Amino acid sequence: MMISLLAALITIGTFLPTRSFIHLGIIALVNFLFIVLTLKKPSLSKVRTLLFFNVLFLIIKTTFLFLDYDYFSTILPSLILLIIFYKALTKEKISSFFKFSNPLSFTFILYTVVSAAGLIFWYKIANPTLPMEMDLKSASILKIITIGAMFSLINSFYEEIIFRGIYLKFLSNATSSTFIAITVQAIIFGLIHFLNGVPSGFIGVLLTFFYALMMGHLYLKTKSLVPCIIAHLLCDGVVYGLIVFNNLGKI
């Protein structure tokens, strides 16, 4: 159990926002050391899988950091690589992420409304700018809508598949504790939004932490990423729309 908890803490370190190659190298080394410690213990195979996944994520993160790629050129290839790795390790079908037989519940509606309200609250007090550079004054309505739709769709798929679909499942299996799994993935999700996330800053970390708790609970309740992705997409759409209208001087 102790190694499982330490693996969960190492996972938090893996996702800490940084542009330091030294930090990434140290975290990768720690992951490798713990992989070695678990090699002769079959009972820790889930922990080892989680640590291998951490290492792959760090390699991808370091590569794109070195190449200085932007958001959209980074997120798509990294998502593809992570899904391939997940499938290779678990032998599960990717379609298992999206099994969904229950109608959208009151819990889904409640969490979506609360999350959207939290984003509006952050927007009102932080007066944020767009997460990507774009000259809104000269951009056409079609371009603004297209970028917003792509941002919302890609971001919702990426973050929900990684944090709820992969890490929440791995953490739950590794620690044998739903509470620890939901909490750790929520801490990670909050921390990565501190510098450049939407929302960002200390308020952003707090808001995204509670959002991730809700999405973690929703995923475990429905056994599907579909409601999580829909909720995330709607919330991203809300905040993008607010920021765009604010930058155009219409709010």
Can you walk through the features of this model?
This protein is mainly α and 251 residues long. The protein has one domain (2-247). Helices cover 75% and strands 0% of the residues. It contains nine helices and no strands. Helix 3 packs antiparallel against helix 4 and helix 4 runs parallel beside helix 6. The termini are far apart. 33% of the residues are buried.
From the structure above, extract its key features.
251 residues; mainly alpha; 0% strand
Global structural class: mainly alpha
- β-strand amount: under 5%
Could you state the order of secondary-structure elements as H and E? HHHHHHHHH
- What is the tally of helical segments? 9
Poorly predicted runs are none
Q: Quick one: biggest sheet?
A: none
Count of β-strands: 0
Helical percentage: over 70%
Radius of gyration: 18 Å
- How many domains? The number is 1
Q: Using the alpha-carbon principal axes, give the shape.
A: globular
Ends distance? 52 Å
Q: What value does the average pLDDT take?
A: 77
